[in-house]
Amino acid sequence: MRCLPRESGDPARHGLSIDHRRPWNTGSPAGACHPAGQGPDRLAGDDNGGPEMTDTDTTRAMPRSAANAAPLLSVRNIEVVYDDVILVLRGLSLEVPQGAIVALLGANGAGKSTTLKAISGLLKTEDGEVTRGEIIFNGERINGIDPDKIVRRGIFQVMEGRRIIADMTSLENLRLGAFTRSDNEVGADIDMVFNYFPRLKERTGLAGYLSGGEQQMLAIGRALMARPKMILMDEPSMGLSPLLVKEVFAIIKAINRDLGVTILLVEQNARAALSVARHGYIMEQGKVVLDGTADELRDNEDVKEFYLGGAGDQRRSFKNLKSFKRRKRWL
Question: pTM of the full predicted structure?
Answer without folding.
Answer: 0.75
